[in-house]
Amino acid sequence: MASSCHKSLPIIVLLLLLAAAAAAAAVTVPVASAAAGNDTTFRPGEELRRFRRIKAHLKRLNKPSLKTIQSPDGDLIDCVQAHLQPAFDHPILKGTKPLEPPERPRGHNPDAMSDDVFQLWRSSGETCPDGTVPIRRTKEEDILRASSVKRFGRKPAVTMRHDSESNGHEHAVGYVVGDQYYGAKASLNVWAPKVMSPSEFSLSQVWVISGSFGTDLNTIEAGWQVSPQLYGDNSPRFFTYWTTDAYQATGCYNLLCSGFIQTNSMIAIGAAISPISTLDGGQFDISLLVWKDPNHGNWWLELGSGTLVGYWPSFLFSHLSEHASMVQFGGEIVNTQPQGQHTATQMGSGHYADEGFGRASYFRNLQVVDWDNSLVPVPNLRVLADHPGCYDIQGGINGVWGNYFYYGGPGRKDDDRCS
């Protein structure tokens, strides 16, 4: 969250004040808080240190680019040489380059979706040169929206459980557990759910999970999300995530730390998705495949019609260095209980599962990758909604969609169904 002085003072004036304060003895100056309307305390030494931390972090994240593309939504997409992306700041990866693509799982038939223009930044027809990867530029205001520089790009530390909600996180999911899994695949439609508070989000994703549901939880995640705090708007965006300690100190969204290695020059992780589904109208879905390369052990991500996005190196993980023990598909929101009531943040389309095609969100053609690197239909799919009065789920099987489910909901409304 931005401090009150950033809100009430122009940045040039602020920097002059900080510079003067650094040379003089530390003082406190009362300034009006634009957010709360109350007096607070201006501590120039602390503000200067924070400003320096932000600038240093921006320098680490925003690598030199060969080309920059302006997106219609205001994003700047930097075309960065693949071997200079943030992942290669990791000591183990320094001086190396991205790996060649692995063999796909057997039985994999890519969906017919075209990836040529599925993100807003590509609408002008511009692309990044071969040998580069498109990276959404991080701006100062992005970091200022976070609770701290250290927590920027990370989910709040939570103890994730598949049998109930945790720390304000609510789910409507289908899942399989009890075997060894080496990947997962699904298609899901994309919406723009309303998110009521900057500190809340709404997402739909695939989770590949191992470890206990304690501090040793390992996850790999990919899908779409609306997160005003992370991105500064309410657009659905393609994202990735990983953690090896239940979101505490490891992992991040997208390319905001050393972790995921991107290999694709056409897709910008964290960029807005376009088009999206419309109520009682056209449905736009994306297909995601995550699987473990049986030769090198890395976890690869494919999007749509056979487009490899990149991979998570095996050394990032403890339990997932071997295999997953659970796969989960579905939606998640954060409920901060504004005004002491359940949030009205929507999940998926904002409509309940029983409204069906064209109105509810869905996952279809759910599959997992088995020990033999083969894609097989999800066995014994279970469905669970933490708070079914707010967000529910209904599963089924048919010949066209295979294993599928509808899910989502509006959160709190005036009908008392969600309270």
TrEMBL record:
UniProtKB keywords: Signal
Record keyword Plastid present: no
Q: Which organism is it from?
A: Canna indica (Indian-shot)
| Classification via InterPro entries | Glutamic_endopeptidase (IPR053168), Neprosin (IPR004314), Neprosin_propep (IPR025521)
Q: Where is this region: Disordered?
A: 90-110
Q: Which residues form the Neprosin PEP catalytic domain?
A: 163-419
Q: Which domain of life is it from?
A: Eukaryota
- Write down what this protein is called: Neprosin PEP catalytic domain-containing protein
List compositional bias (Basic and acidic residues) regions by residue number. Answer: 100-109
PROSITE patterns from the UniProt entry: NEPROSIN_PEP_CD
According to the record, the signal peptide region is 1-24
